[in-house]
Amino acid sequence: MRAILILLLVTVAARAESRAEAVEAAAALAKEQSREIRRSRYVGTLSLHFENDTFANNSDDNFTAGFGLTWTSAPIRRYGFRNVFRRLVEDYWSFLPQISNPEFKKQVQIHIGYELYTPTDISTPVPPPGEHPYASVFHIDFGVYAVREKSMHAYFIRTGLVGPATQGGRIQKWMHKSTGRESPEGWDSQHPNEPLFNLLYTYQRRLVRWIRGYGFGFDAAVNAGGIVGNYAVAVRGGLQARAGYGLPKNFERSSPLSIPEEVAGRYDRDRKRSFYLLLQATGAYAPYFMPSDGSAFQDSFSVSRDELSFRVIVGAALSIGRFEAAIRFVVYGSADEPPRANDDYGVVTVSWTF
């Protein structure tokens, strides 16, 4: 009987000790997670974008200039449970494919964009026949990325405004005056004021990632996606490749319709410094594109265009610590004619992760 009592006491003591160790371990883990959340509460990446045909040529035609400001979150698991962006994703976006999948990291992005379109001949009060109409577009994109090592899904809502209320004519006249260029005379003929609402989706799949010693390597990915709304109705697909030192594990920008800059995976860098070259080819079918085709609900100028088009991008990116700078040159063409020099433009991006 005494032996049985001793055995019971030892068992109870062992269980109590085990529970105490478990509670202590859980408390330590919770404390560490709390510290990580506090450290990461304001982590994000801020990017500035400037797009202009001056970088590639000195002519106005079709897309002539664009500006963008983008904020991208860290993976939302780094934020506290009460964080507004984490709540939005987990409570209201979780029905989307892969958003609720724990194997995917989720990142939120807000992008503010501004686009200007003009004809080649900007000396007349209305666009000459066969040339692009004047259009000024302001838009705000809100979306979420679901990312893992070899694939990415991106879902966005785009809202905004096109028309004189965006002040595009005043901005371009100031830019041309500051650089000594001809003043555009046709902004009174631009598309009328109209609100914008669009849904966007992008999918990317990494085909290969090959890294050798000293951090040099290359990767390649395919992409597909689309947009529907009164800014554009389009689908597209393409291929991209990168080569260089310290390649980040992100996925590059892949849309010819101003979907925000590359961000997905920015927090998974293997090295503090990187430099790489980029080559990308994308084809698109766009039965409707508002800047060229005019307003969906009001009378406005339009221009005949090819619904099938392609673009080629070459570029380079350099990152040092939390800073990154990139430049890209974009060449457009269509199924019926080769690219023209005044359809090209350049993109400069500067980013800071904090």
What's the number of helices? 4
Low-confidence runs (pLDDT<50, min 5 residues)?
256-265, 338-342
Please provide the count of β strands: 12
What's the order of the H and E elements? HEEHEEEHEEEEHEEE
Strand order of the largest sheet: 1-2-3-4-5-6-7-8-9-10-11-12
Please state roughly what percent of the residues sit in beta strands, choosing from under 5%, 5-15%, 15-25%, 25-35%, 35-45% or over 45%: 35-45%
Structural class: alpha+beta
Largest sheet: 12 strands, antiparallel, barrel
The span between the termini is 67 Å
Mean pLDDT: 80
Helix content estimate: 10-25%
Q: What's the alpha carbon Rg, rounded to whole Å? A: 26 Å
What's the structural blueprint in terms of helices and strands?
Layout: H1 2-40, E1 44-52, E2 62-73, H2 84-92, E3 105-118, E4 135-148, E5 151-162, H3 168-179, E6 194-211, E7 216-229, E8 232-245, E9 273-289, H4 290-293, E10 308-320, E11 323-334, E12 345-353
Antiparallel strand pairs: 1-2, 1-12, 2-3, 3-4, 4-5, 5-6, 6-7, 7-8, 8-9, 9-10, 10-11, 11-12
